Amino acid sequence: MINKLTLILFIILCLEAGLALTLLPWISFGSVNDWGSNFILNYLSQLMNLPALQQLVSSGWMRGAVTALGLLNLFIAFWEIAHFNQSLQYLDSKDAQNAAGK
Q1: Cross-strand pairs, 32
Q2: How confident is the model at residue 102 (pLDDT cuts 50, 70, 90)?
Q3: Which of 24, 29, 37, 57 minimizes the number of CB atoms within 10 Å of its CB?
């Protein structure tokens, strides 16, 4: 039962992280500015005296890299959904081996 719950929570985590990493670099929310011009990024680039940091983060290359990580998370989530029973059997067999070894 605990393995099933763990696997379900892992899938949910991968889906949420994948959606966030895929969409956030490209959309703006009402009062929240664009990905490359937010308060925390401005503060860090001024604090570290690295104006190139803001340019790097706001570049299309960085947005693409973050989006690729999001798509990878979504792929992992959908793969786990498709192979749910197989993963559950693997986790159960590992628990049985660990219990027998103790």
Answers
A1: 29
A2: low
A3: 29
